[in-house]
Design a protein that fits this description.
Blueprint lengths: L7 H8 L6 E4 L6 H9 L5 E5 L3 H11 L4 E4 L6 H4 L4 E7 L4 H5 L25 H7 L2 H12 L4 H14 L5 H11 L2 H4 L7 H12 L1 H11 L4 E11 L2 H15 L19 E3 L9 H6 L7 E7 L2
Length: 304
């Protein structure tokens, strides 16, 4: 399936691209957002792009074929070690790209039978297979509960440990069968695939996704220029809560009014929310791309 970038036009609009600016796409994928930024850059503009998936970088290089793009096969959280200048804008699209989900060999999807993998960076040693087959039951339960909000996390974790004692859990369908057996019959009849939340949780844990986001959110304010913007698209509540909390922290006046400061002594926050409420996809976009249904866009701008 061709990857369709979610909330593409709105993201670029709110990013407010300066023609000669320096930008960063921390989640390159197949280059959807980057290509739109390039349309607005002049010959002096640049965009640094990051991805853990070397195949995504190769495909985007061929597709974009533009010397204004600087490629980094690295995690976006490490951008400050690789870019030695302040930025006019940053984009993060935290969804997994369609080619990753739809390639059976990558082991991301419960819809295909494949070896359990889920690594975005194929050079990384630990995969979902290692988590399922070597982690303690309590830790597997924590991952499913915290990262997948799976209501039957304890039961699934217990059944995983029982089954793997007989033979390793090798494939996605091996795991799906265990999940289905762990689910109560009444829950199985409800809408949605029973493995969805477990697979999400394992993907997040395998790729340290929330850790990466937390590190990035701590760093990025120091690396934006005045009037620079940061646009982040999330796809589940765990990510969105982190972004919402950090953006609120950056844009809130924390002056202690009990000190009775003069008006001129009150320091305005360094950042301003571009949109106070998360932007979501409209019905037309969701009809074209079902993965847009859970997307939320938040944008913040540096004022000083």
């Amino acid at each position: 399936m061709k990857h369709i970038s979610v909330l593409l036009e709105k993201t670029i609009e709110l990013l407010d691209v300066k023609p000669d600016g320096t930008y960063m796409d921390g989640t390159l994928g197949r280059g959807g957002h980057t290509s739109k930024v390039l349309e607005k850059l002049d010959a002096n503009g640049r965009i640094h792009v990051f991805d853990l998936d070397i195949e995504a970088i190769k495909e985007s290089k061929e597709r974009l074929n533009d010397e204004r793009v600087i490629y980094h096969h690295a995690n976006y959280k490490d951008f400050d070690e690789l870019i030695d200048m302040k930025l006019d804008g940053i984009i993060l699209d935290l969804g997994v790209s369609s080619p990753q989900f739809d390639d059976p060999d990558r082991g991301f999807s419960y819809r295909y039978d494949a070896k359990l993998d889920m690594r975005m960076d194929q050079s990384q040693r630990e995969s979902a297979y290692d988590i399922v087959n070597t982690y303690e039951e309590a830790e597997i339960c924590r991952i499913l509960r915290d990262y997948g909000e799976e209501p039957y996390a304890k039961r699934i974790a217990h059944d995983i440990v029982v089954k793997r004692a007989l033979k390793p859990i090798e494939t996605t369908f091996d795991l799906v069968d265990i999940i289905k057996e762990a689910y109560p019959k009444k829950a199985l009849s409800k809408k949605g695939h029973p493995a969805k939340q477990t697979f999400q949780a394992l993907r997040i844990a395998t790729n340290h996704e929330l850790d990466s986001l937390e590190q990035f959110l701590e760093k990025f304010p120091r690396h934006l220029k005045k009037d620079g913007t940061c646009a982040i698209i999330t796809f589940h509540s765990l990510e969105d809560r982190l972004v919402k909390r950090r953006f609120k922290e950056l844009s809130t006046d924390n002056t202690d009014r009990r000190l009775m400061l003069r008006p001129e002594d009150i320091k305005e926050p360094d950042f301003k929310l571009v949109n106070h409420k998360a932007i979501v996809a409209d019905d037309v976009e969701i009809e074209m791309n079902s993965r847009a249904k859970s997307a939320k866009l938040r944008v913040i701008k540096k004022e000083v």
